[in-house]
Amino acid sequence: MQKKNQFSIIGTGAVGGYYGGLLQRAGFDVHFLVRSDYKQIKTDGLRVDSVNGNFTLPDVQAYNDPSEMPTCNVVIVALKTTANAALKKILPRVVGEHSLVLTLQNGLGGEAEIADIVGADRILAGLCFLCSNKIGPGHISHLDYGMITLGEYRADGEPGGISSRLNQLNKDLQAANIPTQLVEDLALARWKKLVWNIPFNGMSVACDCLTDELVRNPEKRLICEKLMHETAAASNAVCRPIEPDFLAKMIRNTEKMKPYAPSMKLDFDRGNPMEIEAIYGHPIRAAEAAGVNMPETKKLYEKLKKLNPAV
Ligand SMILES: NC(=O)C1=CN([C@@H]2O[C@H](COP(=O)(O)OP(=O)(O)OC[C@H]3O[C@@H](n4cnc5c(N)ncnc54)[C@H](OP(=O)(O)O)[C@@H]3O)[C@@H](O)[C@H]2O)C=CC1
Ligand SMILES: CC(C)(CO)C(=O)C(=O)O
Q1: For residue 4, what pLDDT is reported?
Q2: Quick one: how far is CA 24 from the chain centroid?
Q3: Quick check: helix, strand or coil at residue 50?
Q4: pLDDT of residue 1
Q5: Nearest ligand by distance to the CA of 257
Q6: Is 89 a catalytic residue?
Q7: What pLDDT score was predicted for residue 77?
Q8: 169 Cα to the center of ligand 1, angstroms
Q9: 104 CB under 6 A from ligand 1?
Q10: Would you state the pLDDT for residue 2?
Q11: Whose CA is nearest to atom 1 of ligand 2?
Q12: Which CATH number is associated with domain 6-184?
């Protein structure tokens, strides 16, 4: 029988705490790297309030020093991209010869940063369609959704296909009740997610509103649609085309969503740094390198940089 994968969670926040918690609940051996709430989690464990049912894990294997963590088969990166400078110290201590690294971060550029530290051939990515927040020390609130779209990373941006290691990881996540889907073309999946994140994350901050207002108000909706079209054109140039009806589908889905504060709006409202480079800077630069300008996106990028709290 195949040995069960062992997981380390780098960043026990909304995403790492939620998915890591589900993996531990399902019986996997999970090791959590924790920062500000280390003492609390060491003593009281993790609490997850979830639309799918609340649970607590009174005993979790928590660490505040990565060099004390075991090298696990799967290392899950769940820091905000704004904290990625820390990965240079963390990853060499937790990634072993045979470890895979699964990054669950938003936006573009994260895999390349990780590849510079641990090599490209061990990297998988998961795009999370999840609404989760860390609301207190060791306390996660999962509000909605949860699907992870999983793919193989390739440094040349070509489709990585569905490998056996991706299938194995998929089985483990599903065994933990995590909904997943596999994609052959991770780069295209990232651009498709940006078709939503580029308009709605930044516009919710710039206009200080939730998603419902962005699709209801004709002027704001028009800007969102322009941003979506620019993102699709960039995908076409940098990567591969996005099917034509996808943009309209994203608008329709957003119309049906409960009024929602995207992660960037939550960060802004809390005075935390926003993931502006991952969601705007990298895509704009990738598009420019492929000969495509994103003028509306650039305008929003410049506005967001001014609004970003000094760190
Ligand atoms: N939340 C969501 O629903 C979704 C999030 N995402 C993406 O997932 C990624 C993670 O976001 P999210 O979980 O929301 O962010 P959170 O801020 O909730 O979690 C990040 C965690 O990383 C910890 N951390 C930061 N630096 C270090 C460090 N040097 N050592 C150890 N721990 C550290 C933070 O610790 P501390 O608690 O001390 O600050 C925090 O708990 C982002 O890229 C985000 O865009 C994508 C889709 C949905
Ligand atoms: C898709 C969504 C809205 C939640 O997963 C997101 O990516 C975000 O809030 O940044």
Answers
A1: 79
A2: 20
A3: strand
A4: 43
A5: 2
A6: no
A7: 99
A8: 21
A9: yes
A10: 46
A11: 129
A12: 3.40.50.720
| C-beta of 297 in contact with ligand 1 (< 6 A) | no
How high is the mean pLDDT of the chain? 97
Residue 198: name the closest of 108, 102, 109 by CA.
108
Mutate to test the pocket of ligand 2, among 103, 144, 201 (most ligand atoms within 8 A of CB): 201
Among all chains, which residue has been given the structure tokens 């918690």? 21
* Top mutation candidate among 15, 131, 142, 250 for ligand 2, by most atoms within 8 Å of CB: 131
Residues of the chain with pLDDT under 50: 1-2
Q: What is the reported pTM?
A: 0.97
Protein residue with its CA nearest to atom 47 in ligand 1 = 128
Question: Which run of H or E residues covers position 220?
Answer: helix 218-238
- What confidence score (pLDDT) does residue 3 get? 54
Pocket of ligand 1 contains residue 106 by CB under 6 Å: yes
Torsions phi, psi for 253 (to 5 deg): -60, -40
Residue spans in the chain of domains classed CATH 1.10.1040.10: 188-307
Residues of the chain with CATH 3.40.50.720: 6-184
- β-pairing, 61-63 vs 123-136, is unpaired
188-307 belongs to CATH 1.10.1040.10: yes
Residue 234 is encoded by which pair of tokens? 């960039």
